[in-house]
């Protein structure tokens, strides 16, 4: 049964997940508040923009994955929340730059004007750069983990996940895929590869952070990575579905943009039903990849199907 008692109430799976995500978001927001600089001096404007982009009500899913993958290995929440804040600021930087006129050219993000609209382009580029670099400063700090080898492993994995063969690689392919799609040279496998990089890599880091922090076995790390690989695709397919089926009010960002920009997505290649079926298959594969950890973490095992039904 998908039911759980809470305060005398019987909750369905989706309510349990929503509450768990809200609780972890609250905790990571408190950590973000502590690690982000307060605006000071002549550089105050860029620090203000870093805070503006970060404290705008994102879903905080990547920190949720860090927290729950870490709990599987007995890691102290104080450590995983710092890693969660690092991945969240790095993700926020990717959104600030993704919205720039030279990329997706969007005016609305997380229900507010995008950073380059609220400030200016120069400030948005620099605030993004500063959010990227502070992520590594947070990981390198001894408060993140007492063992320097663990901190180095986190830094190395995040650098790999966010770089040229990771998120940036995916963003580049996303930007040039429209011309390849027009020439019918960009199929389903190409889209899945693009999604594994642009979205999946940050999910992979988030899920591998738990076993890294907990010094778990290579086998356990591979399980969490396999779960994240499927989850990244599920998440990006639903993002692409929402671009077609949802509203700016619900998502906090413009919709209908992918078709307008000729983006290559599984929705454009397979249609809404085909893309949803593919995401469903992958959501089940994600849970299967967890093996024995599926039963130990209802948060991780419930998330793929929960995300598939999300409206924002
Ligand atoms: C949006 O990510 C960018 C994608 C990878 C699709 P989220 O949907 O997690 O954005 P926030 O953090 O909740 O705003
Ligand atoms: C962005 O993907 C993924 C990033 C790495 C920033 P999208 O361009 O689809 O994200 P949204 O729809 O603008 O949030
Ligand atoms: Mg984009
Ligand atoms: Mg975009
Ligand atoms: Mg999108």
Outline:
Helices cover 71% and strands 3% of the residues. A hairpin with a 2-residue loop joins strand 1 and strand 2.
Task: Please describe what this structure looks like.
With 312 residues, this protein is mainly alpha-helical. It is 71% helix and 3% strand. The chain has helices at residues 13-35, 44-54, 61-71, 77-98, 115-118, 121-140, 148-162, 167-182, 188-213, 218-245, 248-251, 257-260, 266-289, 293-296, 298-308, and strands spanning 4-6, 9-11, 108-109, 112-113. It has a two-stranded antiparallel ribbon with strand order 1-2. It has a two-stranded antiparallel sheet with strand order 3-4. The radius of gyration is 19 Å and the shape is globular. The mean pLDDT is 94. It binds 3-methylbut-3-enyl trihydrogen diphosphate (2 copies) and magnesium ion (3 copies).
How far from one another are the termini? 26 Å
Major β-sheet, in short?
Answer: 2 strands, antiparallel
Spell the H/E element sequence.
Answer: EEHHHHEEHHHHHHHHHHH
User: How many separate helices?
Assistant: 15
Low-confidence stretches: none
Compute the CA-based radius of gyration.
19 Å
Structural class, by secondary structure, is mainly alpha
List cofactors, ions and other ligands. 3-methylbut-3-enyl trihydrogen diphosphate, magnesium ion
Q: Could you say which overall geometry the principal axes of the C-alpha atoms support?
A: globular
DSSP strand content: under 5%
Helix residue percentage: over 70%
- Give a count of the beta strands, DSSP E runs of length 2 or more: 4
| Mean of pLDDT | 94
Instruction: Strand order, main sheet: write it out.
Output: 1-2
């Amino acid at each position: 049964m998908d039911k759980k008692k809470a305060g005398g109430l019987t909750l369905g799976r989706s309510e349990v997940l929503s509450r768990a995500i809200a609780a972890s978001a609250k905790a990571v927001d408190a950590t973000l508040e502590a690690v982000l600089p307060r605006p000071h001096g002549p550089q105050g404007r860029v620090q203000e923009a870093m805070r503006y982009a970060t404290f705008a009500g994102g879903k905080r899913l990547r920190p949720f994955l860090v927290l729950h993958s870490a709990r599987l290995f007995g890691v102290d929440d104080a450590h995983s929340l710092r890693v969660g804040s690092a991945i969240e600021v790095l993700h926020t930087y990717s959104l600030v730059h993704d919205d720039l006129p030279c990329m997706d050219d969007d005016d609305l993000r997380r229900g507010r004007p995008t950073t380059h609209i609220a400030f200016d382009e120069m400030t948005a580029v620099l605030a993004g750069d500063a959010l990227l670099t502070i992520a590594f400063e947070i990981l390198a700090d001894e408060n993140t983990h007492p063992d320097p080898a663990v901190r180095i492993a986190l830094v190395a994995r995040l650098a790999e996940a966010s770089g040229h063969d990771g998120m940036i690689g995916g963003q580049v392919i996303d930007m040039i895929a429209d011309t390849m799609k027009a020439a019918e040279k960009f199929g389903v496998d190409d889209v899945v590869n693009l999604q594994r990089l642009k979205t999946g890599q940050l999910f992979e880091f988030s899920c591998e952070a738990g076993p890294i922090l907990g010094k778990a076995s290579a086998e356990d790390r591979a399980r969490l990575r396999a779960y994240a690989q499927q989850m990244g695709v599920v998440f990006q397919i639903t993002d692409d579905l929402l671009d077609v089926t949802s509203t700016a009010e619900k998502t906090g960002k413009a919709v209908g943009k992918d078709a307008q920009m000729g983006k290559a997505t599984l929705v454009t290649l397979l249609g809404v039903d085909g893309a949803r079926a593919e995401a469903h298959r992958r959501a089940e594969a994600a849970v299967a990849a967890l093996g024995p950890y599926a039963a130990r973490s209802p948060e991780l095992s419930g998330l793929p199907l929960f995300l598939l039904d999300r409206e924002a």
